## 1
Amino acid sequence: MTSKITLCAIGLLAMTGMALPNMARADGLDPIAIRQVGMDLANGNFAFIKTVVKANGDVKPLAEPAKALARWGKTIPVVFPAGSDTGENTKAKPAIWSDRAGFEKAATAMQDAALKLADAAKAGDSAAVAADTKTLGESCGTCHRHYKTK
């Protein structure tokens, strides 16, 4: 089921890029639009994980959405290239570009936390998944506090 969710998310991302003309810039795909869709998909994966943890559900299926979050963490710096600091209702703070090393470190921390969560989920360790979900949420929150406007 999680692979179907992942495929749907990829399909949605691809269709969104094709369906909305304002998503494309003259020189290619709009990184602001891509990162906004990616963040929405990441939020959905994280919400799903939190819901399962809160309900004390089976954590093994959470490995796939956690891996998707890890892949997103690796991708985040790529979708914030120089020159993508304005337009398309971006909420990116200038610190992303002025503190690039810190921003990339935060994205890596998110990726690492998601990979740890994926490993715990694969092992079926509910207690570790709950703790790792909290750590992942804190990682996301730290990045958002420093690099995203409200």
Note: The first helix runs from residue 2 to 19.
## 2
Amino acid sequence: MVAISVLAIVSVLIYGAFSTIARGKQSASNLSERYRIVRLAMTRMSRELGMAYISAHVAASPQLSARVTAFTGTAKRVDFDAFAHRRLVKDSHESDQCELSFFTTAHAKKASQLDLVRREQIIIDDQHGKGGVVQVLVDDIDTFSLRYLDPQSGMWTEQWDSSSAAMQLGRVPLQIEIVLIAKGGPAGEPIRLRTKTGPVIQQPLAFALK
């Protein structure tokens, strides 16, 4: 009986130790995966914003315009055209041009949860900022904010519109600052990331135009 009692006590202690190790390992794995998701989202936004462009090729008459390229942004959302599309289906009639957006939206089933999403429309049309497919980049975030550096004034602004004569007509920002704060960090603290990126193509595309 004594031996059985000792064995039972030792077994309980061993089980408790292994259970604690397993929980710790799972917690570390979840935290690592959370950091990976947030970092990948920041990397993707930075890379695709760097591929942004606007084109000076427009129809002579506004009524004939079928495609409009622009870079528009606020502190919470950015819409732009970029050479960022990846053709995944063989022989599909697609190019590397697309219309992209990054913004936040409420979770479909949890109204109190905010998600960072990416919108992509393969065919650029005259409805800038509309249509396309929306996918979640990071779920359950706390903050997503943007600022744009105007190369002419040297000032940061939270509003950008390359299609408005009253704002930054025909221009893209020199740099875009991205701040992303996601929930789910260590000890309940948020994960805070900040980066700056800028479109490589600063001038409107104007092939054969004088």
Note: The mean pLDDT is 86.
## 3
Amino acid sequence: MKMARAAAIILSLLTVLGCSKESDTLKIGAVLSVTGPASFLGEPEKNTLLMLQDELNAKGGVDGRKVQVIVYDDESDVNKCVMAAKKLIEQDHVAVVIGPSISGNTLAIAKFFAPAKIPLVSCAAAEKIVKPVDPWVFNTPQLDRHAVGKILADAKKKGYTKLAIITVSDGYGQAGRAVLQDLIPAQGLTLVADEVFGPKDTDMSAQLTKIKGAGPDAIICWGTNPGPAVVARNRTQLGITTPLYMSHGVASKKFMELAGDAAEGLILPAGRLVAVNQVPDSHPQKALLVKYVADYTKKYGTPPSSFGGYAYDAFALVLEAVKLGKSTKSEDIRANLEKVTSMAGTSGIYTMTPENHNGLSEDAFLMVVIEKGDWKVVD
């Protein structure tokens, strides 16, 4: 009897000690496409989170707590993403989750977070992630609507009135397509062709031939690698000289590698991270961008991408919420994410509200042209 009582007391003490130890660590979960077709998104996101974790812990952590980032690779697969998200929620008991990298994967797991009362800060850009607002779901990339707005403003400035679109049939592509279908006529422009390609398609010549026949003033391609690079190469092969816009989904040097010479002259909206040296020193993002590029390049031997920047901003938003609420409880992080105001990130200046879980505006974008294998700001 005494031994049983002693065992119970020891178990109780161990439980208390375990809870105390856990409360001293802020657990941040992350589900990212580190491998698979979307690895150009997820690998820099993982690298960024682990770098920030180490930097922060070397300085003593946040609010007196060490940070532990638990990263799972969904391999760019929606089913593996679902399993990883459930594991973070049910087994790892994280306070917040960053990711996924892909819009479709984000939309597949978003429903899990309100019942679990854990906030999700996605690194994917589809407008459907945050519209309509789910109190527990946020995202960090500039939204499709912001990108389309910048593209259409540039097109109107150049006198283009007839536009064609070619979009990928995944979550990101179709979210962008919906916004394009909405805003093109709303801006007084005419949509003369609307073509779609699959994520694994290796030739879009048929779609581009149809577009050429419609006689547009400009073409807008919406997708992430590798599809847009195929579109760029096929356009060159077909001798099409109609101006081609890309979405922010290809704002990385990886796109230039895939497209080769066909990338020359293409125009797209991108965050200031791709053109740090062209950002004025007085801009509120400049010092942060310079440091991120230097730190990431030193650690990994290559500059960061806009996609790594999305994870940087998610991590920074979580830390800001913890500092605002002086709490690492999931409910408090969620509530204080909505109170973040004028926080400079790599992707823009964030001001969150209960009605706005993205926090960016069209001003977060620059229009850039690809010139001699690099980005040149054109506005």
Note: Residues 2-23 form the longest helix (22 residues).
